[in-house]
Structures are given as structure tokens and as C-alpha cells.
Design a protein that fits this description.
6 copies of one chain form a homohexamer.
Chain A lengths: L52 H14 L4 H6 L3 H16 L6 H14 L3 H15 L2 H9 L8 H15 L6 H9 L4 H24 L14
Amino acid sequence: MAQKPAKRLPPSPPPRAGEGREAAPSSRKTKGAARDDDRVITALELPVTGLTPAMQAYFDKCAEKLGFIPNVLKAYAFDMPKLEAFVAMYNDLMLAPAGLSKLEREMIAVAVSSHNRCYYCLVAHGAAVRSLADDPVLGELMVMNYRAARLDRRQRALLDFAVKLTAEPWQIEEADRNALREAGFTDRDIWDIAAVAGFFNMSNRIASATDMRPNSAYHGQKRE
Amino acid sequence: MAQKPAKRLPPSPPPRAGEGREAAPSSRKTKGAARDDDRVITALELPVTGLTPAMQAYFDKCAEKLGFIPNVLKAYAFDMPKLEAFVAMYNDLMLAPAGLSKLEREMIAVAVSSHNRCYYCLVAHGAAVRSLADDPVLGELMVMNYRAARLDRRQRALLDFAVKLTAEPWQIEEADRNALREAGFTDRDIWDIAAVAGFFNMSNRIASATDMRPNSAYHGQKRE
Amino acid sequence: MAQKPAKRLPPSPPPRAGEGREAAPSSRKTKGAARDDDRVITALELPVTGLTPAMQAYFDKCAEKLGFIPNVLKAYAFDMPKLEAFVAMYNDLMLAPAGLSKLEREMIAVAVSSHNRCYYCLVAHGAAVRSLADDPVLGELMVMNYRAARLDRRQRALLDFAVKLTAEPWQIEEADRNALREAGFTDRDIWDIAAVAGFFNMSNRIASATDMRPNSAYHGQKRE
Amino acid sequence: MAQKPAKRLPPSPPPRAGEGREAAPSSRKTKGAARDDDRVITALELPVTGLTPAMQAYFDKCAEKLGFIPNVLKAYAFDMPKLEAFVAMYNDLMLAPAGLSKLEREMIAVAVSSHNRCYYCLVAHGAAVRSLADDPVLGELMVMNYRAARLDRRQRALLDFAVKLTAEPWQIEEADRNALREAGFTDRDIWDIAAVAGFFNMSNRIASATDMRPNSAYHGQKRE
Amino acid sequence: MAQKPAKRLPPSPPPRAGEGREAAPSSRKTKGAARDDDRVITALELPVTGLTPAMQAYFDKCAEKLGFIPNVLKAYAFDMPKLEAFVAMYNDLMLAPAGLSKLEREMIAVAVSSHNRCYYCLVAHGAAVRSLADDPVLGELMVMNYRAARLDRRQRALLDFAVKLTAEPWQIEEADRNALREAGFTDRDIWDIAAVAGFFNMSNRIASATDMRPNSAYHGQKRE
Amino acid sequence: MAQKPAKRLPPSPPPRAGEGREAAPSSRKTKGAARDDDRVITALELPVTGLTPAMQAYFDKCAEKLGFIPNVLKAYAFDMPKLEAFVAMYNDLMLAPAGLSKLEREMIAVAVSSHNRCYYCLVAHGAAVRSLADDPVLGELMVMNYRAARLDRRQRALLDFAVKLTAEPWQIEEADRNALREAGFTDRDIWDIAAVAGFFNMSNRIASATDMRPNSAYHGQKRE
């Protein structure tokens, strides 16, 4: 429980995978608690490798659209098959057409990450909820305690299922699925809810296991 | 676990204690999830009463200094002895000269409130950490998971004690006090750490029990 | 988890705040496990200070009425503003006229302290339940497991709310408040239940953090 | 979580097993929360049966030595093989010569029952600790939080093992056994500690499952 | 949390109680993780003693009927009164005529042992469920998560009660007993359910405290 | 907590995705608790779709190599992008060359699934541990309680990290990573451990959310 060890970085750290792909982080405001978060992305020293053309194109698209490469992608970029599998699964779950809106999928992401107290995912996906909802406070509610939000029945059922599945997966039974059906979800939606909640239970653990740091740019996004 | 009931408010709600003391909330931006938070402060219908001169002066000072009256004060304002006792204890603990800095006291407040997932206190005191530290990200770290912050040994020991005392008070023993002493805290500091952590364990529960809503103004404070 | 360290007391300990205010503890029976509890009140070495006239009068009144000064007051007596704020809040919550009887407030105190396994509060407030109820066994039931007591619906709802608020404050919702309303409590009563439960969640933690010892006189009170 | 149901007893209840064996309970003071505890021993309606001569002799010996038959024995008396097996195991564990003193065995009983919040066992064995230790406060400490007691290293190790074994038996490993060995216990003592802790984990559950009530006489025993 | 210590066994270990009663374990297949489980039964070095004639007869009967002596009996065989009390209670609970079938009693044993993650009892009683049900999969379901089994209402109510009594005995109330009554159980059955669940809460803890190893023969029993 | 509802299946259920790819399940022994597990794979009614050529080839390879298509693949086969992303991630994590052996990866899978009490994954991956280790008992130990296994330091550190990451991901810190490094793991291995543990935290939840049933063929695999 002692303080964090001094980072085991050499005086002049070697570049990490994909690191040079965006404008130098020193040009952004990264003082204070986030000061190293755009430079030292995880607590692990992983090998440097080149991006495949497909992944290079994906990183370029991120940089163009977001202004930066999400650190989770840079963290995975030490190994192309892992990066590609992660990107394929993420994009299918969070961006493909589905019965759940993109906002609902991000609300699951944040409520699950709140249960697991995952710093990376709360920062990155909290910003996504703020933006998709055009409501800074909804993002805060998902981070802090979704039960305090004024949700309609559908969204409350969604998050109750996702958080119970996170906390006590062994207790999920037909009655829980029926509560979703009664709130208007189809069996296909139930799969998607389970898959998104499951995915963030995976990602939360990879982020916590590696002390993954969120890009500093997320913090200020959509605060008003 | 059903959705929130429609608020039991009459079409034209009566003023609540102290409510008229600041600029009309409708002049602020309170759309979205926080839209009623400056108007319907708790889930309880409590009697209206007048402020004592001392409390009126205190409210005036808050309005002048902060631009608004913190909702917790308005919530307590149905009963002057309760309000005065709360204000006296709060001001002594959080503002009086002590071995702990004001920032350290607010860090305890937020780390304890994070364990208890208290929406009101996380919003109000998260803003205080952001401001006192002049570091928006430190506030987020206290809200999300203080263990992910790069703290020095003193602050880490402080929060480890406060959060263990919150989670499992029956497990605190001499070894825990000695860990604080070894991190440089005096016995008087230990009392203060316990008192601040204890105070927010109280406040978190009063806020959760009454569904207390934070002033919408907190959300945007010190975000850069 | 090792044994308690030998107390860090010099051979001839300096007087602590307010310590000389009552008859010498050596005149009472304090052998066995409580043998030092009237003399070494906490594990902290705190400064000695004089009582304000108001607090001196209050201590005198305690000594006259109870035959002793409750150790929690002596523990707080190193700092007058803290003592005064504690006394003001305690007296308002536990003794002022309210919709809850004094016994009901003490039952909350003990059920909350039982969840938190707080030795000081269980001893002191267990004695209060025994006395106010004129029923030694009711005090034992509150200490051991309130669910085993034959309570009427009102008292059971009271304690179920207070203990849930203690154990999982983040789970309290409108349904919990409605359960109190259906058992006959007003919204004002709900505030008071929350405030008393909250207060003992604070006090339990201050007592546990400081290893506060109850006056030995409590143990034998109202045993038949 | 509603109030206790009205007892399902006919106006004139039939005698239960062994019930007539002692002086009429109405001659004792059983007002208040314990008022029915000498008459309605469990929430179950079990058949009445006669005692075997051996068990009759045992009950007679209890009545002579204690002044009453412990309710747990009366509860088991609906079936002689069950009563006999329980008595044989109890007497071997708690009364036979062993490396653990009788007081230490009773301290385990109460610390385990405190973790499990078992009303019957806390009352009956709390009284035993008070008596065997000739120290009313030690009994209260075992009931409330054994960690607050000033125990020597041996007794602390004993209770730490017993309570960990109660709370998380799957976590017990060689290191835990070695902690007992280092505190001076033999392997044979370790068996006995496990067996006593295990026995009360059984008895706590039988008592809680049947709402077993302790004899009212225990409450006042050895209070000074 | 380090690895298991090298067993503290002398090069040529002395015989343990009852050890020579069956065919030499080396004649069975005990390679791999179970390789020592028929020879080193617990982590404790306990005295060797002779069996009483009654216990010798019982061991002989086990050897004849099962082909081996269950290790729990050998573990208890260092002390005849303990062995006899254990055998008497076990045989009464698990084998005597009762409202619960033998399979139902074994299902309780395994579901309780699964909650407590007790290796010995899961192996030995998992084999019993497989055999009594003539269904290898039912045994796996009891070991892994009884909630995933397709149980009828009676068996589900049985296991829900037994597992709640295991996990949170302090929460068992009349409503829980009524759920059993509504599923068709008599008050006498409720006693038996509590007694079997209680017994395995005891045995799980004795086995975990001593690192008791199951006979290797159980693993292959009734796998098809 | 009531019994399982009668399956909502029409008298003549439509074929599900990929279902016809193997020998008719009725030709296998699927009586008892697993009787429907090869036919009704989840509690959800999901659309039927055709396999892409790549997935068809993969299913054919499974059928040839294993003798059946694992039910998790059939469950995912309602949507090709989801199936392909799952297969890509699974094969990379569990089968690609890495610093962890395949057995070690399966041991993580089962220890994580044991914490989460996931029936599907315990059955399928328990069989994998039995086979890869050529040791039926090691599989049982991973299912029941990995702490009871005689593991070397490397494997114990591996599972301690994976299970802590499963139970309390917010508590993982540099000290936990260092424990892995001291047991001989590289930073790249730490990523892989986190990724495998994370993957099964996802899969456990998808399986529990959908009541996914394991192929009956797993139960008998490698039992001797």
C-alpha cells in the first residue's frame, strides 16, 4: 500500500509502439496528476513494433477524428494480432448498428467501470457519455452512482442488469432476463447488453493490471 | 429497482427554506440530468422555516463567496439547531487551522465518498479538490480510484487509513495508527483524519438517505 | 494482527483533558479487561487544555446526573471547538423533541454500531437501550442481531433502513423511503432516522480509529 | 424484512420435549424482549418424545448444576439420536481435557458467534466467558469485537485463526497454521481450535435457522 | 500467498492412525496432483492411537463397502471420542430415515461446500451426488453453481435455504422458513436441512483448517 | 429464486446457427441434468444465419479435431462479425506462442471461472486442464479451490494475480506486478496473464447472462 514507485524509465526512454503518431504531447497541457499520462501509458515495458497497414490507417483515422490516438490502442500496439482482435471486437460492440443506442452502450461501459473502479475506462468512456448525451452531468452520474440518475425504466433495467452481471454473475437467472424483456428488450438486445458489459469487465481488468493511463485530452471534453 | 417515481411536487411548489436567497436558478444552465437539482434538493418534503440572523449572515457569505448556497445547507435549513450544529462542525473540521492542509481534508472527503458512492459529496467535494489543487485530474482520481493517483507516501497513507476506516472500521488497530505515525502524522493529525473521514461517512449517508442533489454549478468548476 | 502493543504510557502519565473532573477511577471496580478503560481513554496522546465555562458546566451536569463523564467527551476535550460542536450535534439529535422516541434513537445507535462492531458505542448505547426500555434483553438484542428481536412493524422498518444505510448507502432509493412512510414515518422522521444513523457511522469510526474505551460503569447498568 | 409474524401457537400450547423438566418458567422474570424465550424455544413445531434414561440423567444434572436445562438441549430433544450425538460432541469439545483451556474454547465460541451474529450462542456462551474469566467485560468484548480486547499473543492468534476460518475458510493455508505454531500451539491444539470453531459454525446456523431462543437466565449471569 | 512449503515429513514417515487398514495406496494410481493424498491426509502431525473395537468394525465395514477408508475418518482417528462423536452425528444426519432423501442431503452437502470452496468435501460428496443420482452432471452442477441446474421447486428451495444459511446465517428469518414450508417441507424437514447445512459448515472448516486431502479413489467414481 | 421456468421452446424447435454440423446429439448419452445441453444452448432465442466460409472451415476443423463444435461457438454463430472477433481473440490468447504454456493459460481460465462460478467455462476449460496436464485431479483443484493445489511458486503467483484481478481489480498495484516479476514473469507475460484473466471475466459473464450450456461431451473427458 506504499506510494507508487519511481517510474522505472531510463533517462531517455525509447519510443513505444505508435507513440510518434500524433503531435508531441508536450504541446498539450499535462501538468498535475496527468502530467505523464500521454507519455507513459502503462506500467509495463513492452516491445516496440510497427503497425500493419490496416492498423496504421485506423490510427490515422483516430488521430484525424479525435485529435489523438486513444492510449488503449497504443498499449495494444506492441502486438498486431492482439491489436486487431481488440479493435474488431470493440468496433463491432460499440459502433455497429444494434438495438441499443451508442449512448446506451457507453452508459453500460461507465456503470460497469464504476463498479470496478477502473480509472482508464471511467475517464475515456465518461467523456463519451458526456458527448453522446450532450449532457455533462449524465456522465458524472454514470461515473459516481447510476442509481442517483433520473433514468427511464428501460435505461434503469439496462444498468441494473449490467451491474448485477458485473458484481455477481453467478446470480443471474431467468428472472433477470425477464426483467429486461419486460422493459422492452429483445433476446438479441440481451446478448448485446451481456457482451458490452462483459467486454468492459475484460477491459477494466487489463487496464487495472497494467496501470493504463487515459489520454489527458479526455478530462476537459464536453464539460458544459 | 424500478425507475424513479415522478416527483411528488405540486404544480407550483412552495418555497423551501432559504431558497430565495440567490439568483433564480432558471437563469443558470440546468438542462439534462441536473435540470431539477437546483430546485428540488432532496426527496423529502420538509417544513419551511426562517433563518436565524447568524445563519442568514452565513448564507449571505456563501452566496457572495461561491455565487450560490450549497444545497446541503438549504437541505438542513428546515431546522436551525440542526443547521447550526452542522455548520459549526463542518467549519471546524474543514476550515480551521490544522496539521492537515485543506486540500488533504478534501481529498479524504472525496476518497471516502467514492467508497460510499455518494453523488452529492462526490460532486461538491470533487470540485473542491480540483480547485484547491489547481488540478482537474486530481479531483477525477479521487472520485474514481485514489489508488491510481501518483501520491507521495504521506498522502497515500492518509487515504489508505481513511478508506479502511470507511470500509472496515472494526479492523483498525494500532498497526494502522502506526502507519500514519511513520508517514509523519502526529497523534493530533490522526484524530483529525478520523474526524474528517467520520464526518463524510455521516454526510454521505444523510445525502444518500434523502437523495440530496448537488448544485449544478459544481460540475463545471475548475475543469481546466 | 499481532497482539496489542504495550501501552505507550510513561510510568506516571500526565493528566489528560478533563481527566480530574470526577472521582478517582481507582475507587471503582475496574479489574479485568476494562482495568485501564477509565484512565487511558484513547490510543492517542492529545494535548491537555482547559474546559470553557460552558463545557465545564456540561461536564459537571454529566457527573451529577450520570455519576461520571462519558469518555467520548473527555476524548474530545483536547479542543474546545470540536467538543462544543460534538455536544451540540449529539444533544440535538438524541435528546431534542422529535417524532422518534429517545429509545428509538438509541436503538438506531446500537444497531448501527453493531454493524460496525464499535466497542465504545455498543457498550455506552447498549446501556442506554437497556435503561430507556427498562428491558436488559432488548439492549442485548440490538447489540447482537436486531433481526432476532420481536419488533413491531414500525421499529423493524426503522432499523432495516438504518442498517441498510450503514451497510450500503449507495443502494438507498425511493423504495426504501417509501417503506418508512408506509410504516408511519413522516418525511421529517426520515431525516431524523438518517441523521442519527449517520451520526453513529461517524462516531463509530472516530471511536475505532482512536481505540476509544467506554467507561467501565456502563457494563453493569440496568442488567436486571 | 417485515415484522415477526404472530407466533403460530394455539391458545394452550402442547408441551414440547423435555419442557416440564424444570421449575415453571412463569416463576422467573421474563418480561420484555425475552418474555417467551423460556417457553417457545424455536420457530419450529417439532414432535414431542420421551428422553432416554441417559439423556434424562443428563438433563437432571444440568438442572441441578445450572438451575435450568439449556434451550439447545430441549430443542434437540425431539429426537434422541440427534440429542445424544450433539451432547457427545459438545462435551468432548468443550469439556474434555485439552491443550486449550475451557475459557479459550468459550472465547472461540463467542468470537465465531459474533461473526455470525447468532443470538442464541452469543447469549449462552457470552455468559460462559464472563463466568469462566470472572470478568464481565471480557465477555462483552468477545461479543462485540474481539479485536478491541487487550489479549496476549496466544489468545489473539487463537481468535484470528478461528475468525478467519469462519469468514473465509477457503483462504486458510499453511501460513495460518504456522502463525498458531509460532504462538505456541501444537498440531493437536490446531485440530481442537478448528474443531471448536467448526462446531460453532454448525451450531450458529442451526440456531439461526430455527430462531432458537436462549434461556432468559443467561442474561443476568456474572454481570459484576 | 507463497507456494506450499515442502511437506514436513521425515524420510520414513511413521504410520498414522488407522493407516494400515487398507491395501497399500501405492497400488493405486495416484500420480499428479493427488499423488500424496492417500498417504499424507492432513497438514497436522497428530498422535497415533489404536481403534476401539466399535471403530475397528466400522472401518472394516467401510473398507468392505467402499474399498477404502474415507480420509476424514483416518484424520479423526487420533482420538477415539472425537471419531465416535463424528461418526454418530454423520450417520444420523446423512443415513438415518428422514423426510429428505439421501440424494437431497448430499446435494446440500455439496452446495454448502461449494460456497465454502472446500476441496475435501467437494471431492468426496460430489462423488456421492454423482452416484446417488446416477447422473455425473448433477454432481458437477452442485460443485460449480447449483443455480445453473434445472431443479424442481422443492430442490431449488432446499438449496437456496442451505446456501443462504451458509453465507449469511444472520439474515435467516421466518420468511425463509415459510419458503421451505410452501415448497412442501415440514418443520421437521426444516430442522434436518439446517442440521445438514450446519454439519457441512463445520466439516468444511475442519477440512480447510487442516488441509485435509480426499482419497484419490473419489475422483474417478461414477463419471459416466 | 424460484425454479427454472419451463423452456420457452416450440414443440419442434427451429434449427439454430451451425447446429446441423455434427452428428445428431441424440446419438450421445445426454440423460440427466445435461439432457438438453447439446440442443438448447442458451436461454435466448437468437436469429439463424449462415456461416461465412472462414467460419464454416473453422467449425469443420473443430468437429474433426474435437468431435463436436463447442457450444460457445454455436451461441455466437447468430452474427458473423461477433463470431469472427471472438474466435480471433480466443485463438490469439489461448493458442498463439507465448511465455505462458497452454496449460497455464487454461489454469487461469478455470481459476477465474471458479471465482465467478461460471458453469459453462468450468466444464469446458476444466476438461482442458485435465487433458493438457494429463492429470484429472489438477482440473478438479482448479475448479474447486486452486489454493488447495500443490503448485510451484510460478504457478501460484500466476493464479494469485489472476484471481485478485478478478475479485478486486481496483486493488491491483505495482506490488502485485512485482510479485509476478519476482516469480520470473516478464512484462510481456504480465500482459498475457491480464489478457487471459480479462477474457474469461468477459466470457464468464456472457455465459452466465445467457445461461450457456456446455457440450455434454466435456464431462467425461480425461477422467483417468
